[in-house]
What does this fold into?
Amino acid sequence: MSILVNQETRVLVQGITGHDGAFHARAMKAYGTKVVAGVTPGKGGEKLDDIPVFHTVAAAVRETGADCSVVYVPTAFAADAILEAAHSGIRLVVAITEGIPTLQMINVLQVLGRLGTRLVGPNCPGLISPGKCKVGIMPGDIHLMGRVGVVSRSGTLTYEMVHQLTQAGIGQSTCIGIGGDPIPGTSFIDCLSLFEADPETRAVLLIGEIGGTAEEEAARFVSAKMTKPVVAFIAGLTAPPGKRMGHAGAIISGGSGTAAEKIKALGEAGIPVARVPSEIGPLMKKAAGF
Amino acid sequence: MNIHEYQAKEIFRGAGIPVPEGDVAATPEEARAIATRLGAPVVVKAQVHAGGRGKAGGIKIAATADEAREHAARILGMEIKGLPVRRVLVTPAAEIAHEYYLGIVVDRAAGKPLVMVSREGGIDIEEVARTNPGAIVKEHFDPLPGLHPFQATGLAYAIEPDPKAARPIAEILRKLAACFVRIDASLAEINPLVRTPDGRLLALDAKVNLDDNALFLHAGLEDLRDRSAESPNEEAARAMGLSYIKLDGSIGCVVNGAGLAMATMDLVKHFGGSPANFLDIGGSSNAEKVVTAIRIITEDPSVRVILFNIFGGITRCDDVASGIVRALEATKVDLPIVVRLTGTNEERGREILKGAAGVLSLPSMEEAVQKAVALAGDSGRMAS
It folds into this structure.
């Protein structure tokens, strides 16, 4: 088991003929993901290797039975691409694209809520169920199939942490990057509750960073609702206030959203927080009893 | 992106919100001319991206145009929280019967814009939110269709029982909300909104932050950026698609990805060093970005060692290595460089770096950071 994606997932790539879309469509396929279709308006009828390309998501879904879409469409068209997928019956959309305006995302998420479509991202590396399915841009070979769920607001920091787990011999059930934007489509709490319900996930690694209060909310959720152990890491102890640290959502504003507050909230919820990345392996082994 | 009060007031005026007259001056003489035209008394206000301008002496009332010039001369020379004041806003002094607070932010937890109002204006809203949250009335709204009239009315009567004042406050709230959505703001604040003794309402101060990600939707808003408020290096980095923030330590950090960049800075601190900067070279980094990153970092005189931490995914380690070699060929870099490369094409990357003098390659993030901290300390001792 795993959450959200597995060996049955039929993936559609929006923006498949673009530089990033083509590169990652091939990489996902090479990993073993069922990449069944691509969409680029104006390129319908073409193929990327043996993957058929359609003008619209609706046509791609009709012809191939795609049930998950990954969006590599440029920023200016990304919100519309997400809406197109949702309106075409896709119930899991993964948006890699960075830089979508916040108010556009608020409007998109309202529509997705009505249609019952989950969005992972935007501005995220995607998600992977090791050995089964990779939907996104992460390097597949650092992952190991196993029983720890990983959820993170970051990209490369997630790779670092997964690398630490794998080197310690700890495999992963599913790793999800929820993205670095202020308003992500899928929250920490959404992922924690999916991991809690997944029989194969034994423990969860949560990777947070400065900005907002998502980690504090996650900490409250863990104490109130979770039976599985959670271990955490928070980036940004040295980040100055008022400066956007790369991610649109990584900013300490009005004195709130600091790493110290988050670490305190997680600690109070009984969640061990690694001070350095190499502590993750030992902490996880101890917490999960591996 | 932050914009100045005078720019925010211009936007509010365009949205139909009552704003006092006024103009911006870059010299004391200009300030005097504006004061003469408006008629004294006037207020001279520092235009700088920092809170607490009043306490810092950056806001002064002038009884005459000459006094306005004197205040401007002093304020234009000062620094507020490290930021030089390059412009002042000269605006008529208003008589105040009452001050309210009106503000809109994006509420990240709720995923919606949030209107906040308070009967008492001129306040530090974050302070009041902590100490007396009951004094703030809040209401979420959807960008489509916007703040409903009934919501604006409810908010207005929550802070002002007199219909004569509440009706125009509701009107201003609707205009503020529409403006917030139209320009893709992340914050829009009128603090204070004043009622004058003759019953008029005026936005005496204005603050707007814009969503950087939405600037491409709005021709002209990018022009409001005050480039004097950021270092030339920050500007050069942005032009190259790098995200750079200067800090005051001695270890220059070059990392791919914002989260890993923050974690690298934290680790530097953990091992007793201090980061000189945040620098994210982004996802699909090419050699050119690496060359720019090294140039920006070596221009910071307090940097004693350069630390690369690269976890290749889309970023290819051999691209980063080529960039380092090219930067070293193009300019003489006297600083030691510690490099950690893991992920896509790491072998090829390490191979490329083998011949580079002064470059030390280490396999893990923690080893690389510890080495950089040690080198920064050593070269510090040599210098002293």
